[in-house]
Amino acid sequence: MSNSNKESLRKAIIVLSIFTLVMCTMLVSGASVVINEIMYDPSDESRGEFIELYNPTSTPIDVSGWKLSDDGSDIEDLAGFGGGSTTIPAGGYAVITDEDTNVSVPASAIHLTTGDSSICTPGLKNTGETIRLNDSSGNLVDQVNYTSPPMPPCANGYSLERINPLGSSNDPDNWNKSKVDGGTPGEENSVYPSPVPEFPIGIIPLVMALLSFFVVRNRKKL
Predict the structure, then answer these.
(1) Per-residue pLDDT tens for 174-201?
(2) pLDDT at 12 (0 to 100)
(3) What is the 3-state secondary structure (H, E, C) of the chain?
(4) pLDDT in tens, 125-143
(5) Prior bond to 152 cis, omega within 30?
């Protein structure tokens, strides 16, 4: 085996290993529900707050019994509004509201409730705080501190929307004020780039196959 062939094979294996590690890391980081939109200062302050969740994965996720909390002591279990579904479909949305909400949730989205007269009693602070989403076992799934600054300011009926669902939850550059009054509960955020950024999962097998072929070909040459 020549030194040049050994070096080519070594480089190919390193590239394949790094690529596999990166792909696995990206899949794990994106394989969860994210807090996608926050309406903390609606026009109707007493009944219009909501928090939207988004499932960026290719698998439905049941959030029954998941916990929602803020900087206060109140921890609330999520349940289906009116006994409805708690399973967020792949690429789907869920909207969390209080029990007497006037927020209009589209039929295509899952409507969740905190089972109380407000979200995270006594409601979301207009001055900002940290919202935490935990699964039924208590594991932290996502959290967002929407205090402005550094987050973009939103008030008087405009929500805070995530730009990239796979981006950082606490990067101010990944959030912006909604372009429409009332926000976009249960629908694609108005600040999303077009098309919505998605992880190209379908291309992984192709790239892996090509890299594997490259490694095998170099082995045969040895």
Answers:
(1) 999 999 999 999 999 999 886 554 444 4
(2) 54
(3) CCHHHHHHHHHHHHHHHHHHHHHHHHHHHHCCCEEEEEECCCCCCCCCCEEEEECCCCCCEECCCCEEECCCCCEEECEEHHHCCCEECCCCEEEEECCCCCCCCCCCCEEEECCCCCCCCCCCCCCCCEEEEECCCCCEEEEEECCCCCCCCCCCCCCEEECCCCCCCCCHHHEEECCCCCCCCCCCCCCCCCCCCCCCHHHHHHHHHHHHHHHHHHHHHC
(4) 999 999 999 999 999 999 9
(5) no
